[in-house]
Task: inverse folding
């Protein structure tokens, strides 16, 4: 890796085992790296965890936050933190120096604008093909594993409804099909329907999917907007399992699902929980290159 990483100060805020592996990879490439929000992580002597977020930010050339993204309230995904980690507080934002490279899966637009006005270089990575396409595999596997663990039937011969046919939707639907499920895929665009049919699955326009929900044993949602609202959920059989793997804000009214006694699962950070090593390898291939290429261009 390019010697430009030598002596570079990198702060990783929040995340799971994936970010720990990124920590090790960046250290191997010469960077000075520290973690924040990992108080509950079982760590060895070769991991540096800071408890002074503001001072660590002041010293950082690069700040990395999780692929899950940053919420509207500034909260960062930090399952190993002792409490919530929020970075939209004035004293924290003030500590970020101009020309800092800020890497995040997704940044809420209002926060992104604040960072850009401070002359911070923002790189959003969640939609990068180099990350999202390979990440779709452990995401699909984790979703199917959750379905298998929470139903009394096999995936084989089950009626599965997949909402969306993007990166995750394609891999998920094709994997279910390979396992012998009866797969229906609902999409917004008519031009996608022939592709679903060619893959030997039942195509359906999203505007008509409410007619199919009663037939589903398992519903997998990959659409990041409210498609399974209270009205739709009311039509479901009580035995139907709902699994939401969509990025923020998701696509299920979970409060309504609970009221109706439905089993609904919101699965965040699946790659990091079901296949942390594979998911970490994906990030380790991409993040050092982002840092090098950005700093070389002098952005």
Result:
């Amino acid at each position: 890796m390019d010697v430009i990483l030598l002596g570079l100060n990198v702060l990783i805020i929040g995340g799971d085992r994936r970010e720990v592996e990124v920590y090790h990879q960046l250290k191997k490439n010469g960077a000075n790296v520290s973690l924040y929000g990992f108080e509950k992580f079982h760590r060895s002597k070769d991991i540096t965890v800071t408890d002074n977020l503001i001072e660590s930010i002041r010293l950082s050339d690069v700040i990395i936050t999780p692929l899950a993204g940053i919420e509207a309230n500034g909260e960062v995904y930090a399952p190993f933190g002792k409490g919530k980690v929020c970075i939209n507080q004035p004293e924290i934002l003030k500590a970020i120096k101009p020309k800092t490279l800020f890497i995040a899966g997704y940044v809420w637009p209002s926060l992104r604008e604040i960072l850009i006005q401070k002359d911070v270089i923002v790189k959003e990575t969640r939609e990068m093909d180099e990350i999202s396409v390979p990440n779709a595999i452990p995401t699909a596997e984790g979703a199917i594993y959750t379905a298998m663990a929470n139903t009394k039937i096999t995936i084989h011969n089950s009626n599965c409804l997949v909402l969306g046919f993007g990166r995750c939707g394609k891999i998920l639907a094709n994997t279910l099909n390979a396992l012998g499920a009866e797969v229906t895929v609902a999409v917004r665009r008519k031009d996608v329907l022939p592709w679903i049919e060619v893959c030997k699955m039942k195509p359906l326009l999203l505007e008509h999917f409410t007619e199919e929900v009663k037939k589903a044993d398992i519903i997998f949602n990959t659409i990041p907007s409210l498609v399974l609202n209270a009205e739709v959920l009311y039509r479901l059989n009580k035995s139907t399992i709902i699994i939401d793997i969509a990025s923020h804000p998701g696509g299920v009214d979970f409060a309504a699902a609970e009221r109706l006694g439905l089993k609904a699962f919101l699965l965040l950070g699946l790659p990091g929980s079901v296949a942390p090593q594979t998911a970490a390898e994906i990030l380790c291939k991409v993040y050092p290159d982002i840092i090098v290429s950005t700093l070389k261009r002098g952005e």
Q: What stands out?
A: Residues 3-126+276-297 form a domain with the Rossmann fold fold (CATH 3.40.50.720). The mean pLDDT is 91. The radius of gyration is 21 Å.
